[in-house]
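Supplementary Methods. Inverse-folding protocol.

Structures were first reduced to a discrete structure-token string of length 253. This string, shown here, constituted the complete conditioning input.
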């Protein structure tokens, strides 16, 4: 069966409110105490070595970000400026930027039970149609600023790093990447899944608090709290940039 998804015009500009909406987040004292007890300090990244670091932007596609799409996450539009800023800054410092997009290609072959049993038939058809690589929903949200020199990765499952989902691990290891800065949507689904699986593959991982977006403040906070407790660091855009060590500075140190 062929599904045709009609193209439509995206809004040419964002309202001020849409540009600035982000989840509030403060690390709870109980989480701070737990992390310090485990590792002796709140964050393991005192510095971020640009040459060995990749910004991983997860699922910032029209289907998940743009107004009017079935799985629109309104808060995802609010994190676009921070993602663009991190991408520009990390590139300039000698780091790597990776744009991860969910694709329908191979989904029924490699993730069949999810589509057959965890989605209604209508929801499954809609998802596969909008994430077809020729569909508007698959494309990156137009306010993002990818460059031709960046890496582009297609994933099938929530996590980009789980077996059979994508080739991101091979691409990053070939570049000597050790640390990952995770941004995108949803915080508590594809972003956290990707971040946790990366940590289990021995990457050092940071989730960017104001570079991730979920459907509610509660889901966003719960995801970050859990990740910080057991899997990696949680930093703001400003905190991350302040720790960034450019390639030249590191080589001359």
């Amino acid at each position: 069966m062929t599904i045709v998804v009609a193209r439509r015009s995206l809004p040419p500009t964002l309202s001020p409110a849409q540009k600035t909406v982000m989840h509030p987040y403060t690390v709870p004292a109980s989480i701070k105490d737990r992390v310090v007890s485990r590792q002796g300090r709140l964050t393991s990244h005192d510095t971020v070595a640009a040459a060995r670091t990749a910004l991983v932007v997860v699922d910032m596609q029209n289907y998940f970000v743009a107004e009017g799409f079935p799985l629109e996450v309104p808060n995802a539009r609010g994190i676009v400026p921070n993602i663009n800023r991190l991408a520009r800054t990390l590139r300039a410092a000698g780091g790597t930027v990776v744009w991860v997009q969910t694709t329908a290609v191979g989904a029924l072959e490699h993730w069949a039970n999810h589509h057959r049993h965890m989605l209604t038939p209508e929801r499954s058809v809609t998802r596969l149609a909008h994430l077809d690589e020729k569909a508007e929903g698959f494309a990156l949200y137009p306010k993002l600023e990818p460059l031709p020199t960046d890496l582009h990765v297609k994933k099938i499952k929530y996590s980009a790093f789980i077996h059979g989902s994508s080739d991101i691990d091979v691409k990053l290891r070939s570049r000597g990447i050790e640390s990952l800065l995770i941004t995108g949507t949803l915080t508590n689904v594809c972003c956290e899944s990707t971040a946790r699986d990366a940590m289990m593959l021995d990457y050092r991982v940071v989730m960017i608090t104001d570079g991730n977006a979920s459907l509610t403040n509660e889901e966003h906070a719960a995801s970050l709290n859990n990740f910080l407790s057991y899997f990696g660091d949680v930093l703001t855009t400003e905190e991350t940039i302040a720790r960034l060590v450019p390639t030249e500075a590191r080589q001359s140190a």
